[in-house]
Write a structure and sequence with these properties.
305 residues; elongated; single chain; 5-stranded mixed sheet
């Protein structure tokens, strides 16, 4: 007899969500960099050797977000030209080649927000794939050509204000070792980790031992064939006993395993819906940078509401 699925109850605050979507549009086309153009350039060129900067970093970040939305560099130059012509003070228009260079050299970082630095956060780690080209699926199916994926591994979190964002990220080929990367992220951010959530891929002694070292509670799905006689990891042995000692549904409630979804799969889903799941760059380094830009832009979106 099939189990009856629970009826989904939508508890979303629709007026609030509607306002969030409206604010996204405001964020995309708000050229606030024009208000601080001269002051920012003066600060950027202070003590600089060689040719000075002509375009502020805030403008490049503005264009980087629009690029993540699918606008190519020539289209971005056209947007800046139209903006300059219609603004009360015309400003020099950056060329598409300069836009490309500045965006690919943009220094972006992923870290715990200052407002959350004193808190302990529930974090989750997961990996997903980004397409290296828009036509990759068709090429594989039609011409039997293997077009590799770009693999991205993120550590996401949710703070007291229910804001979900990425605090750490790694990008590479599809052979990226997700387990090792997750452990590196734990080491880097352990001072702010309250609980670590992950899927069954991370059910290994090394990860459990690392969490035991930093006294971090875990909600890691245990493999069905896991043995309770696990050696060299007392922490994993204990977790296996807990997992096998109760029904799976009860284990998920006990461990609050469902909290993993919004801070991992939820972030992947949101980023791909807003910015797409393929990159337009052709060089490997620029491909990886473009993937990071998307999650950086997603973080910015979380901060406008």
């Amino acid at each position: 007899m099939k189990k009856r699925k629970k009826k989904y109850i939508d508890t979303r605050d629709w007026p609030e969500y509607n306002n969030e979507l409206i604010m996204r549009g405001y964020f995309y086309i708000n050229p606030e960099f024009l208000l601080k153009w001269n002051d920012e350039l003066k600060q950027m060129n202070a003590g600089k050797v060689g040719e000075p900067y002509f375009y502020p970093e805030s403008m490049v970040r503005f264009l980087a977000v629009l690029h993540c939305k699918g606008n190519d560099y020539r289209a971005l130059e056209g947007m800046m030209e139209a903006l300059s012509e219609n603004h009360k003070f015309q400003f020099p228009v950056i060329s598409y080649s300069q836009i490309c260079r500045r965006i690919n050299a943009l220094d972006i970082d992923f870290k715990i927000l200052e407002e959350d630095m004193r808190d302990y956060l529930e974090v989750g780690v997961d990996g997903s794939g980004e397409k290296s080209t828009k036509r990759g699926g068709w090429m594989r199916e039609k011409w039997k050509v293997k077009k590799g994926w770009i693999k991205v591994v993120i550590m996401g979190c949710k703070n007291k204000k229910n804001k979900k964002y990425v605090i750490d990220i790694r990008v590479g080929t599809e052979n990226l070792n997700e387990r090792k990367i997750a452990r590196d992220m734990i080491i880097k951010n352990h001072n702010n980790i309250k609980k670590f959530d992950a899927d069954g891929l991370h059910d290994c002694k090394a990860t459990f031992n690392l969490c035991e070292k930093y006294n971090i509670p875990t909600a890691i799905k245990i493999r069905k064939n896991a043995s309770v006689t696990t050696r060299k990891s007392s922490r994993r042995k204990e977790e296996v006993k807990i997992f096998k000692g109760m029904p799976y549904e009860e284990w998920t409630r006990e461990k609050r395993y469902g909290n993993r979804w919004p801070i991992t799969e939820g972030i992947f889903s949101g980023s791909k819906r807003v910015f797409g799941e393929y990159v337009s760059a052709t060089k490997k380094r620029n491909m990886y940078h473009e993937v990071k830009l998307k999650f950086w832009a997603y973080n910015l979106l979380q901060g406008i509401t």
